[in-house]
Amino acid sequence: MEHTLAGLLARFTYPAIVLLLVAGGMGIPVSEDLVLLLAGALASQGATSLVPTLLVGYGSVIVGDVLIYRWGKKLGPRAYEHKLVRKVVSEGRLARLHRHFGRHGFWTVVVGRHTPGLRPAIFFLSGASHVRFGSFLLADVLSAAVTVPVVVTLGYFFGSHLEDVRRLLHRVDWGIAAVALVGVGVWWFLRKRRHRRAGNPRDAAPRPVRHVRERTGSSSV
Questions:
Q1: Which has the least CB within 10 A, 73, 84, 101, 142?
Q2: Greatest CA separation found in the chain?
């Protein structure tokens, strides 16, 4: 696969970057990270320039992600039965994903961008689960603004050690996804505790007590 992709990128340069990244974003088995690494390595050899490669790579990644989001949104609930999803996501995880999309759509997309192998399926289901397009796009744009330049730059400087870099990226992606999940868990816990305190009458400010001196009805003689 690596040699085939490298040949396509060397021959067609920028159009190949666009085509391969959009295809990978749409769920076709093309590794986004590998394409970006190879594109960076190609720029280091002078076949392309680094800055245009970064811009083309970033734009192509976003386009592919938006397309698969729109596809999932068009299918609606049927997307959960699609082979693209069933092949990589278990039944139990599908139920959890559905809940996460309803509660934390933005952060689920962020985690999805850094989850190797599940990225297309998660973006596909985010559309089917009615995650707002603005939230999806913001999460994807911000996440890709970090990952795409990093991966292309690694390919540019370490193109002769792509396999080692890919293993490192795999670990880093899972690490970022884990950190994002922990962040969501902490946010959810603090939010739930704040709501519980707000609804607990013991935590409410005590009402002032009016002291009334009762008259006994007896009079002194």
A1: 142
A2: 118
